[in-house]
Design a protein that fits this description.
The protein is an alpha+beta fold and 242 residues long. It has one domain. The protein is 15% helix and 23% strand. The strands form 3 sheets. Strands 1-2-7-5-6 form a 5-stranded antiparallel β-sheet. Strands 3-9 form a two-stranded antiparallel sheet. A hairpin with a 6-residue loop joins strand 5 and strand 6. The structure holds calcium ion (CA) (3 copies). One calcium ion binds next to loops.
Length: 242
């Protein structure tokens, strides 16, 4: 008998044995074992910090962005860190505003209305003003120089539009929680287009909401015995090979 045949016979015998145990009535001696399983979800918690590690205040910019002139730009450097237990795959930036957050310089409610020359008192929409503001977002390790997105605030306000992924390549283009909470630097620059004309004098978007959206990695098929907690905490952007 070849080795192959012996092996297949052994398997057949084992299968037959199992079927005996499986069916029929119980004998006198019985035993039941039970086991429990915990099924606990991890957490995704993105935090926005100053470069020194302090939590950022409500306003993204510490400067008051007012009295700006065409051609001005202002830049903010901050970092995104993982405060949860699951590794974060991607982080996208979104900026939104509403018509209600806009005050036209030609509107008597405008702070600068009284100082505005009559010829510049021209009404326009929030979108027209937001179209004059260029948003540039950079990611990358140490000093974020890699352009992740460039467009106008008006474009970024559209529902389906976000910047590209901000996670840097140093730890697999992700923001793992293990072995330590990763932190990636981000740079945002707002520029008032130097082509903005007089109708935008005194115009103000009183609230621009910046939102950072963190996403999880794709689901993984685990085999029992694997360290799931560790894997999900330290996961990188590339899918787990199978
Ligand atoms: Ca990523
Ligand atoms: Ca990273
Ligand atoms: Ca105006």
């Amino acid at each position: 008998m070849s080795i192959k045949a012996k092996v297949s016979m052994a398997i057949l015998a084992a299968a037959a044995g199992l079927s005996l145990v499986g069916g029929g009535t119980y004998a006198s001696f019985t035993d039941t074992e039970s086991a429990q399983a915990e099924f606990a979800a991890g957490t995704i918690d993105l935090q926005v910090k100053k470069l020194n590690g302090d939590t950022l205040a409500t306003n993204l910019f510490a400067s008051k962005l007012s009295n700006l002139k065409p051609g001005d730009s202002v830049e903010k450097l901050f970092k995104i860190t993982n405060g949860g237990t699951l590794s974060i795959r991607d982080v996208f930036l979104k900026a939104t505003y509403t018509e209600g957050d806009f005050v036209d310089g030609a509107d008597p409610r405008s702070e600068t209305f009284a100082k505005l020359d009559t010829k510049a008192k021209i009404k326009n929409t929030a979108d027209e003003f937001a179209d004059q503001i260029v948003v540039e977002v950079f990611g990358g390790d140490i000093y974020p120089y890699k352009s992740v997105w460039k467009g106008t605030l008006k474009e970024l306000n559209q529902d389906a539009v976000t910047t590209g992924d901000l996670t840097d390549p140093t730890i697999g283009h992700s923001l793992p929680a293990l072995p330590w909470a990763d932190a990636d630097p981000v740079r945002v620059r707002l520029t008032f287009k130097d082509t903005a004309d007089n109708k935008f004098q005194g115009d103000a978007l009183q609230k621009i909401n910046f939102q950072l959206i963190a996403t999880q990695h794709l689901g993984t098929n685990f085999v029992d015995g694997e360290n799931i907690e560790w894997f999900n905490g330290s996961q990188l952007d590339a899918p787990k090979p199978r």
